[in-house]
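Handout, section B. The chain below has 152 residues.
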Amino acid sequence: MKKRLSFKLMAINLLSFVMTLPLITFADVKIVEAPNVLASDAVITSNVKEKIIREMKVHITAYSSTVDQTDDTPFITASGTYVRDGIVAANFLPIGTKIKIPEIYGDKVFVVEDRMNERYKNTIDVWHPNRESAKEFGHKISTIQIIETGEN
């Protein structure tokens, strides 16, 4: 009975999330032809400077938006935003902190917008879109870089 109830809650939360999304019609879509550029020919420049504030070794796990891995609002983070790629949960860093996990994700920047159960002290929990990919990620120990970004 409890499992059936949690699936109903998950379905209700998902429906509530979908209902908040803006309605997009074909009139809103603009099709643009991309130029024929090979990835090796592309040069990417950025106006953002990054400064590494601190590096530390931490436990890294993964979670997905299911009631048994979160609270009763699995699609809403502790900061009040919706879960999405690039979101992490951590208890030892302030909400809004930007981090990199270079050994696993290269230069990808993550933002702390969620919290974990209070028993997890030195752990980063990376959001994944589904349970299978979160389970596949497993548990790792890696160095994170706490970064500060600013415009040039």
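Note. The first strand starts at residue 48 and ends at 63. Compare this with the example in section A.
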